[in-house]
Amino acid sequence: xxxxxxxxxxxxxxxxxxxxxxxxxxxxxxxxxxxxxxxxxxxxxxxxxxxxxxxxxxxxxxxxxxxxxxxxxxxxxxxxxxxxxxxxxxxxxxxxxxxxxxxxxxxxxxxxxxxxxxxxxxxxxxxxxxxxxxxxxxxxx
Amino acid sequence: xxxxxxxxxxxxxxxxxxxxxxxxxxxxxxxxxxxxxxxxxxxxxxxxxxxxxxxxxxxxxxxxxxxxxxxxxxxxxxxxxxxxxxxxxxxxxxxxxxxxxxxxxxxxxxxxxxxxxxxxxxxxxxxxxxxxxxxxxxxxxxxxxxxxxxxxxxxxxxxxxxxxxxxxxxxxxxxxxxxxxxxxxxxxxxxxxxxxxxxxxxxxxxxxxxxxxxxxxxxxxxxxxxxxxxxxxxxxxxxxxxxxxxxxxxxxxxxxxxxxxxxxxxxxxxxxxxxxxxxxxxxxxxxxxxxxxxxxxxxxxxxxxxxxxxxxxxxxxxxxxxxxxxxxxxxxxxxxxxxxxxxxxxxxxxxxxxxxxxxxxxxxxxxxxxxxxxxxxxxxxxxxxxxxxxxxxxxx
Lengths: 141, 396
Known about the structure:
The structure holds 2 protein chains of 2 kinds.
Chain A (H helix, E strand, L loop, with lengths): L4 H4 L2 H19 L2 H8 L2 H11 L2 H8 L1 H9 L3 H17 L9 H7 L3 H25 L5
Chain B lengths: L3 E6 L3 H9 L5 E7 L3 E3 L3 H8 L7 E3 H4 L5 E4 L2 E5 L4 E4 L4 E3 L2 E4 L13 H8 L6 H12 L4 E7 L9 H15 L6 E6 L9 H13 L3 E3 L4 E5 L4 E4 L4 E3 L2 E5 L8 E3 L25 E3 L12 H15 L10 E6 L4 E6 L12 H12 L1 H6 L1 H14 L2 H6 L4
Parallel strand pairs in B: 1-2, 1-9, 2-5, 6-17, 9-18, 10-11, 10-16, 11-12
Antiparallel strand pairs in B: 3-4, 6-7, 7-8, 13-14, 14-15, 19-20
Helix pairs in contact in B: 1-8, 2-5
């Protein structure tokens, strides 16, 4: 172990120390050091980590590669174009929708809004079916 | 009020954490260890298979204990629980108000004929840093043949250790450019490649994908170094060029009075929840030296140390039997998560868990020295990842 300060403070270390001290002064002037000191209490850390370590978050973090891969392939323009439509429709759905039988369905089909929604769904189903066929036999759909 | 005297036998993971957790205004804490050094046992894998310097995984015990904790460098030769006295090899005696056994599980190299000679020739990754270093030199010079990892007793510390050694040795041979000439072989005493079928089902395809040869129901009985053969209790034999065998473990070798606090294998009998030595309210045992029906692992020792620290302060605390044993391949990892009420839950190999294992190894010394920083993190982690919680999420 070096005993004298000049043995410890080589030129490189002195330069690094000066930069560190400058940084510390800056952090102190901004109140960061005092705040960090106040925050670093066992109970603050306990509640912070309890909040962060949610099992759902651990599960998501574990699959971050899979999730990012999926998110990277999302067509955000298409999502952006339709998201308001979907949000509005979801909000309008009553909390407890009435059950509908075959007779009720035929009656509902006379409603122009249902007809428009069905048109959207049929177009969506057609596109979905086409994608499924392409996935099964590429180039044949 | 006079401070209560706590004598902790062993300065390994459990002993050192417990010593650092006890408030010094209430307790006079003394740690006794025959070694001056604390060795991070999972580091053997890093030395043996990654060639990392052994100094990284060894620190003076004194440097890990908080100022004010006494350290006695001497070997325990006897503990008299009736007289509340610890007898030391140097002739000294220590009286106590509370004693905590944390001396680990020594390895018995004489239980399997030929084992001592095998370790002397090749080294291993379970006994000492020096032997781990020797195994690295042995493996680094292999250009062809069979490297066999086998187990002599189904109860051993760090249950995924042999599997980690298997994957890491494959990685080493790949780096050396001889993975196609050196066959890695794993032989285990259980019916599947891991004692839990849930975990075995996850790692089996990984072993297969690397061309690693596996043998089940293979409990090492004897080793013939001249013929380069390992024989099993089940009547099978395996050829090897180099082999590393996990030795049977034993309970503490020193005398404990009354003798009936040790079980037939020599382990200290404890209440599995409180860690209290059966029949004594002033004696506890934590980590590998106990008969607790859970994995012999660092996590067990750590969590039991926290329970004992709380109980000595008058709080009610119980150890759930929680395990969190990491099993790593060359690029991914998983944790074997279980407790007394749940067998290992379904888990997947992932990059995050591999990173967490690396992070755990890197921060080990800090976790021993500064439990006040790490305990809130560990507490939150163990709560969030408890088996009954993750089972609701379909595993992890």
